[in-house]
Amino acid sequence: MAWVVDYFTDAAGRSPFREWRDALSDLAAAAVDAKIASDIRPDGPFAGSSTDHGADFFSVPVHFGGVRLRVYYTAEHATSTVWLLHGYDIAADPAPERAARETAETEAARRTLARWEQQRRAR
What we know:
Blueprint: E1 4-7, H1 16-22, H2 26-43, E2 51-52, E3 57-64, E4 67-76, E5 81-89, H3 95-122
Parallel strand pairs: 1-5
Antiparallel strand pairs: 2-3, 3-4, 4-5
């Protein structure tokens, strides 16, 4: 069964993932879209290349040519919906700074996840 993929939008109408994706180059955006279509949509949280960060919080790498990105998402099993939360351009950081930045981006994605959970409980 294919999963529905949607953008998390906060109470103010902002979608951090959509804003990030829209700012990417055409090539990078196409690579993200292809990864979503080939891995995330059919397999949801069970996408083979995904990293499970616990509590239905996942990330998947997107590598294509010089494009090196990471997409963060959560899975709502009751509705078979994957909510895209956050994205990170790995290649934008020099190697010595990459680990610290990836940790910071993962934490930013966790904060977005917390907002998604808060909105879900309020429904």
